[in-house]
Structures are given as C-alpha cells and as structure tokens.
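S.,

Sequence below, as promised.
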Amino acid sequence: MTERLNGPQDPPEIVTGGASSGPADTPRTKRRLGPSPKVAIAFILPAALLLGVWVVYPIVYSIFRSLFDASGSGFAGLGNYATIFTDSGTFKTIRNNLIWVAVAPLVITTLGLIFAVLTERIKWATAFKLIVFMPMAVSLMAAGVIFRLVYEEDPSKGLANAVLTTVRDTFSSSQGYPDARPRGGDDSPVAAEQGGVVTKQPAQAGQPVLIPIVGIKPASMPAAAQPAAAPAGGTGVSGTVWFDFTAGGGGRNNALDPSEKGLPGMTVEAVKDGRVAATTTTADNGSFHFENLPAGAYTVRLPQANFQAPFNGLTWLGNTLITPAIIGAFVWVWAGFAMVLLAAGLAAIPRDALEAARIDGATEWQVFRKITVPLLSPVLLVVFVTMIINTLKVFDLVFIIAPPSAQPEANVIALEMWRVSFGGGNNQGLGSALAIFLLILVLPFMIMNIRRFRRENT
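The prediction came back faster than expected:
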C-alpha cells in the first residue's frame, strides 16, 4: 500500500560488472558496440584514397582542363562548352545520344519484361534464360566484332542479309540480270525500250517468240539454267528467252544453239493496246507460255525489273542504318540483364493478388496491365534508369561496329570525347568539356537510383 501511494518505483539498476562501493560511486559509462572510430577510419582510408585518386581527382582535373584551349596554356573559359553546341559534328553526337536514350532503354525494358513473363509460362524456362542471358558473358568489344560480321553486306558473309535475301527469295522467284541487254542489229527480233526489252513484231498464237539476250557475265548465270529449248506445243503465245552466246564461237545469232542456255526466272508480259494482258515466268530452259490468253496480236515484253541487280540485303553499315544497327547489338547484349531483374521482381509479386483478380473475372491482359505492371513498377524503373546510364556511356560498340566512313553518322558523346582527345584531335580541352558534359547528363539518373535504393532500405 505504501508503494502505491508513493507512485511508480524506478527499475532496479543493472550493473554490468564489479561490486558497488557505495552511494558515493559515480554512474558507469556505457560501452561502445563495435570497433572504435579509429579502427573504422583505418579500414576506410585505403578505399577513400583509391576513390580520390581514380574518381575525385580526374573529375576535378577535367573541370580545370576544360577551361583551357588545346595546348593547355591559353585560358578559354567556357569556350569549349560553347563549341559543343555550335560545332555541327559535335552537335550530331548529342542528337545520336538522344536517339539512343529514347529508343534503347525502352526496347530493352520492354523485351526484358516480355521475356520475364514468358519464362513463367514455358517448361524450358531455364534454358531460355540461359540463352537470352548468355550475351552478358561476352564483352562489348567481342559483341562489336560479332555484329560487325553479322552486318556484312555480302549475304554469303553477313547473317542479317543472308536471312533477308532468303526470305525475299522465298516469296519472289524473279532473277535479276543487271548486265544483260538485247542483241542488237537490224536482224534482231527484239529491241530495248524504257529499260526493258520488247519484240519488234507482234506475236501471234502458234508462232514461237525468240528473245535473244547477250552481255551476261558467267557469275550472273543461275545454277538452275538448262540448255535453251523451244516451248512445248500449245495454242497460246509462247517463246524462249536465252543467252545468245556460244563459248568459243561458232554459234548462230538470233537462233537457238545446243550449247546455249535459257534464262530462268525472267518475268515476261503480254502487252496489248498499252496494257499488260498477262504475265508469266520463264522456266529453267528459258521457255514461257501464256495460258488462256485471248486471241489476237500481242507485244511480248521483258520489263525493267528483270535487268535490275538482285536484292542482296540492306547496307546495315551505311550512313542511314548504322545507328539502328548498333542499337540492335546493344539490345542483344542487355536484354538478358533486364530479363533476370524483372523475373526476380515477378517472383516477388504476391500470387494472392493475381489469383484474386482472375477469380473476379479479369482477363490475363487485364491482370498483366493493372496488377503485374503496377506492382513491378519499382523494378521496371530501376532497369529503365540503369539502361539510360549505360546508353549515355556507350563507346565500345560504336567504335568497333561503325566503319570509318560511317562513324561520323554513328558518333556518340563518349566516342567523340575519346576521338577529340586521343584519336587524332589532340584537343584535350574540348575532350575534357565533353567528359564533364557527359557526367552532368549521367548524374541526375545516378541520383535517382541512389534515392530509390535508400527509400527501399528504410
């Protein structure tokens, strides 16, 4: 009862060691947990020194050097920074970097999300992840060498054009003969007209049409070409297109000789009153025949398309496609990285929310758009920002893939910085200004990532 009247009592004092000598003793100080500050500083100091030597000092010196001219003796102030935005070549590098930032991170993040979702729905997910992530084990320099070969213009060497020409040839059987021309002379039955070849006399049913062609190089002759022969009998207009040349001489002009070969794949048109009435294609022996052609006189024509060079793919390493081509190589390298991070984020999403949405009648697309993507947004943002930082710093792929003739069109800030400083420009003042400009571009995204990491850890 006395204790209740006197109020709450203080808890008994806990003594960590030793006996109390009496009421006159002073209170004991609390012991520090962990090492002392001196020990912590001793361990941090080597890393701090390396950080200062490799990071802080280069940044400070680059800022100082960017204020001087190429020789380093004349003070230029902000002149080097003004050159970045006034020089046409340097300004083009900024434009290319903007294209990189606008395209590459979005494509990589989207592909990574698609791949991550697919890995949850296929049985061979481990093998799929291994294949997609494998390019991360290859250095960017090696990836550049690989894609330099992939983008070779010759379809027999470059994989990209080999695929394109194969697909194109699958849907188009026409064979181009760029060096071919009709046999000249008054006795020739054909003549050149508007890039093509036409018969001089109208063709009638039952009268074979002979179209002699010369000027074809042996390399342009298709392997399927057979000895030229007159077409099989029929009631319509028919004829033969052949290479009117006998090796070693002795052949007859404008006549089918046994050693002469037909020209397969030629597009042949029957023209009447200026309009194309029918179209056919020559066989391996050069013969052609128009089926179900109404009776009448027709002009037989080989259109200009027969004499154009065959499709050999795209000029990937030319000025027009060089930047998209390099971005494609960059996506190939980094898509696996995005997939792994997003797959880990998908694995952490509560399955209860997904199942509840499906039970409520939501479709898979609605579940993905309204539940999966919002819950995955923190990881998506981290991947997207990381890819922006990587695109701003890209150097290796552009340097290796772009040939010297197309490098000015594919130039980026990091490559321009190296080229101006050490690649022949010998202007380290402008190069330092480009380095600081690139640092300023990267810093906001780095700060954004650091703040997000801190918020997630609190």
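DSSP finds 14 helices and nine strands in the chain.

Coffee later?
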